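Deliverable D2.4 — example input (structure tokens):
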């Protein structure tokens, strides 16, 4: 399992909501949310707010569908949260996602909004593949939100909650 040192005390890993199918010639990066995706983004953001999940920092991929998901989170959780958009989350590896989390030394809780399969790989790096399989046996759904809490020192992370839209 991965080490994040010093860690935030809580990590939120949110997969973007459902996106439109790409049109011929359209870049994957430019695909936005479809109607179901807009509904998913609003639902998961509201569910997170209802549970009291309020990250200090939101870091999102720059892809259109992630930006739109981040906007729903901002509206539901706090209009004062200004998401940080990071290009490296678009085609990045789990190692890059973990490096970005590690760099957040001033935040007690951080939300990453990214893409599958990397968001699921990041979760597995933090809690282990068997824990991921038990929590989400059908795979990481669109607009799925993992809530992880740090326990003590080192690499001990606990999956506290997993919300679906």
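Example output (designed residues):
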């Amino acid at each position: 399992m991965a080490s994040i040192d010093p860690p935030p005390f809580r990590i939120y890993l949110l997969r973007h909501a459902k996106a439109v199918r790409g049109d011929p010639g359209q870049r994957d990066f430019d695909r936005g949310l479809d109607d179901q995706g807009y509904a998913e983004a609003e639902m998961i953001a509201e569910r997170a707010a209802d549970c009291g999940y309020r990250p200090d920092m939101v870091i999102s991929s720059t892809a259109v569908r992630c930006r739109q998901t981040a906007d729903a989170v901002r509206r539901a959780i706090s209009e004062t949260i200004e998401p940080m958009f990071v290009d490296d989350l678009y085609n990045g590896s789990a190692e890059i996602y973990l490096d970005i989390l590690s760099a957040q030394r001033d935040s007690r809780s951080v939300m990453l909004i990214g893409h599958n399969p990397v968001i699921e790989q990041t979760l597995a790096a933090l809690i282990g593949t068997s824990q991921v399989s038990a929590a989400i046996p059908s795979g990481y759904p669109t607009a799925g939100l993992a809530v992880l809490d740090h326990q003590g020192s080192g690499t001990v992370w606990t999956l506290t909650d997993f919300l679906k839209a």
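The first strand starts at residue 10 and ends at 15.
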